[in-house]
Structure formats: C-alpha cells, structure tokens
C-alpha cells in the first residue's frame, strides 16, 4: 500500500475496481484546511480520463509493474504491434492504450509497463521527443509574421502539428510527444 506522498507521474494504481495511470498530479496545501492531492487519472482498460482528489495521507493501492523496451512494428487498424527488444516476443495493444498513437513511427522504441500479477500490458510510454519529416504544409506568407505565427503541417505519420511559418515540406522537426507540439527544426 502506498500513500498520497508516493504519487508520481506514471504510477499505476487500483481505483474503483479498475487500473489507472496517473497522468498529472498537484500537491495542494491551502492556508486553511488539510492538504490534498489533485490528480488526473487515465484508465488503462478504457482510456477514459478522470479527475480525482485524494486527501493527504490517503492510502492507495499501487500496482507492481515492470518496464520493458519494445519496438513499434506496425498497426493493422485497431491494434498496434510491438516487439520486445530483449527476447523478440511480440504483443499487440489497442489504440486506446497509447497516449499519442499518431506520432508513432515504425521502428520507434517505446517503454511498455507490464502488470507483474498477470503479465498484461498496462500502458505505453512514448519517448519525450520524436523526430519526423514534414510531408505537407502551406508555404508561409511573407509579411504574416505577427507574434508567434504558426501554420498546420502534416508529418510522415499523418499527424498534424502547428509549426512556425519558416518550416517547409521536407524539413525534419522535433516534436514533444506529451504536448504534441513543435520543438525545433533539426539539421539535415
């Protein structure tokens, strides 16, 4: 059993007869009244995100997990196929268990958390950044350079990301997977 002081991002807990992964948390100590922890939980079975507040010292049942490196192979519609980098076994996961499946490129290495009780995969942790090529974007309009002007761009995985006006088709860009936002243009 863990308590609210053990809460961290990525922790898997059992709550309301389901397993949830903590996406965000905030310890709050108001000037008046007891402290509490505000959390955002994502169900690993349904993908549904809920907000919950735990009072300070509340006992939570954490799930013992192991993390393994897997390589993304392909998807066949609803299932995404991964291969374990150590023993080459393959698993398939539903799209709902991935946070940002549209930024996943074939051959990308991810970390998958596996429940040690029944060896079922719980969640997929993407790398912090992915490097993708821009396949389609409108050219930037000269003179349209007000503060932080952006335009939509489609990358090689099919995802749409807002990028600065100077980005062109064929450019390689780095994207933050947590926010799904443009970070920088890479040297070619």
TrEMBL record:
PROSITE patterns assigned: EFP (PS01275)
Family: Belongs to the elongation factor P family.
Annotated source species: Nonlabens ponticola
Residue intervals of the Translation elongation factor P/YeiP central domain: 67-122
One of the record's GO molecular function terms: translation elongation factor activity
Pathway per the UniProt entry: Protein biosynthesis; polypeptide chain elongation
Stated role: Involved in peptide bond synthesis. Stimulates efficient translation and peptide-bond synthesis on native or reconstituted 70S ribosomes in vitro. Probably functions indirectly by altering the affinity of the ribosome for aminoacyl-tRNA, thus increasing their reactivity as acceptors for peptidyl transferase.
Gene3D superfamilies: 2.30.30.30, Nucleic acid-binding proteins (2.40.50.140)
Localization terms from the record: Cytoplasm
Keyword set, alphabetical order: Cytoplasm, Elongation factor, Protein biosynthesis
A GO cellular-component term linked to this record: cytosol
UniProt signal peptide: none
Pfam short name (any one): Elong-fact-P_C
One of the GO BP terms on file: peptide biosynthetic process
InterPro entries: Elong-fact-P_C, NA-bd_OB-fold, Rib_uL2_dom2, Transl_elong_fac_P/YeiP, Transl_elong_KOW-like, Transl_elong_P/YeiP_cen, Transl_elong_P/YeiP_CS, Transl_elongation_fac_P
Protein name: Elongation factor P
């Amino acid at each position: 059993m863990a308590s609210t002081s053990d809460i961290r991002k990525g922790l898997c807990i059992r709550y309301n007869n389901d397993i949830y992964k903590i996406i965000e948390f905030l310890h709050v100590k108001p000037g008046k009244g007891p402290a509490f922890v505000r959390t955002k939980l994502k169900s690993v079975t349904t993908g549904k995100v809920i907000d919950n507040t735990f009072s300070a010292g509340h006992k939570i049942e954490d799930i013992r997990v192991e993390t393994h490196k897997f390589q993304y192979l392909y998807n066949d519609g609803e299932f995404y196929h991964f291969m374990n980098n150590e023993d080459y076994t393959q698993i398939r996961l539903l799209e709902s268990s991935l946070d940002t499946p549209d930024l996943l490129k074939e051959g990308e290495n991810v970390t998958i958390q596996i429940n040690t009780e029944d060896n079922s995969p719980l969640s997929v942790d993407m790398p912090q950044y992915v490097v993708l090529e821009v396949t389609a974007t409108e050219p930037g309009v000269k003179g349209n350079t007000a503060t932080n002007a952006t335009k939509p761009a489609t990358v090689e995985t099919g995802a749409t990301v807002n990028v600065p006006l100077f980005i062109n088709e064929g450019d390689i860009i780095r994207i933050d997977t947590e926010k799904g936002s443009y970070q920088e243009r890479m040297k070619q």
